[in-house]
Structure prediction request, 529 residues.
Amino acid sequence: MSITARTQSTPDERSSGRFGVAAGHEHYKWWALSCTSLGMLLAATNSGTLIIALPDLERSLHTSLLALVWVILAYLIAATVLVLMAGRLSDLFGRKRAYVGGFIVFALASLGAGFSSGSTVLIVWRVLQGTGSAFLFANAAALVTDAFPREQLGLAMGANTMVAAIGLVLGPVLGGALVAISWHWVFWFNVPFALAGAAWGALVLRELAKPDSVRGYDVLGTSTFVVGLTGLVLGVSRGGLSGWNDSIVIAGLAAAAVLLPLWVLIERRSRAPMLDLGLFRNRLFAAASAAAFINGLARFALMFLFVFYYQGAQGNSPITAGIKLIPLALGMLIASPIAGVYADRHGSRALAAIGMLVSAVGLAAMTTLQVHTAYWQSALWLLFVGVGSGMFNSPNTAAMMGVVPAHRRGIAAGARTLLQNTGAVLSIAFVMAVVTSAVPQATLFAIFSGVTAGLSPEKLAPFIANMHVALWVLAAVSFLGMFVCMLRPAHVHAGDAAEEPEPGGSSPQIRAHAQRNGSTPASIPASTR
Prediction:
């Protein structure tokens, strides 16, 4: 971190009467990491508890399979389309304020979701939850990058990923236990944790980065982007479930085809763009961003798919299914901190590529699973994918954030989340389209509601076959991601930083920002190799 950023503490921050430590204190980075880790834990735990509760939600709310899927997708779409706006606002008005506000919105939305009387109302509350998450996701990586020196970014991102893995371990098991009480508690349990996160962030976080000196907000670009991307994810996800001739699908895809290219033109000409596209002129940032998208595409739907494999095809209870999903998170828990420390010392390119390859092997091996396959086999391959995810995530994130100028980290973190969440939405849409094709409606209802008593292996065979097709495609996508990871620069020494263009180095907006804020090219750590 630059000396300027480390010494921006105000007099009240340096006073001993304020809780925590001052922004310039050598231990501040750990206080900041504790707050961002709490956000990661909440997000990961919430994801696991809800997914494991989906069959119970379908039975309790008497909803359709399409509405059930949209309980997941509504949250992801909101978080995806709003994350860049959240990143821009945080760069303008402060990351601490935006991060704390995200916790508060998430708490209120979780409270409302637990009182939902039907799927439509629940989806509305999930949109609001996604809005809060957008502000959390857009700022967590930026706050950590502000607080930590660049040579420790891999360690910090690895710690955040490890905490997320703990949440993934706890989420399904907790979800199974909460569903046994009532599905409402799957949402209500978030409220005290989110309020605690808001209070903790308000107490310990400090504003390290200077606000972006170019004021103003790109209203036209933001509006065009939100409508265009909403049309894309709505069209793709709904098309996989309702058919590609659906009028809403056609309208959504048409809007995306017109508005997204228009948004690119608007951003290229804007004085204060929502996303400076010059960021992607840096080869490292561009390759790592593409890999983040592929990672979301290849892996997000896996837990979603296995919940229905365990509860539907194998007839397990929610809490048993939750326990069976633990190896996936356990692999991330083991690999993430080790990968982060290794990347800080030796670079991230090979490590991220190997992580993609390991995940591809695990996904391909899952195609051997049948209705009555012994649990140890699925556990082994889930562990494989978890280890691969841990090897990829923290080094890739550290590499992306480590080469971004301080005043653009909110936007960069938002771009990473945007791409990863877009991949996640498309992943679920694709998997649902595949597994539901050529399967009788009665069988699908039984599988997705978790009530498969009386279904023979022969009746379940079409679902298992389609699951294998989906897994083969996900494995191929992860294998492709390995080559994308290798597109980043092979090696960058700290002394060579000036030779490596800053992200968007040819962008006039970024050069102007750097000159006005007094920032200079910083040394690039091993994690960005």
Observations:
- Residues 1-17, 491-528 have pLDDT under 50 and may be disordered.
- Residues 219-269 form one domain.
- The radius of gyration is 22 Å.
- The chain has 20 helices and no strands.
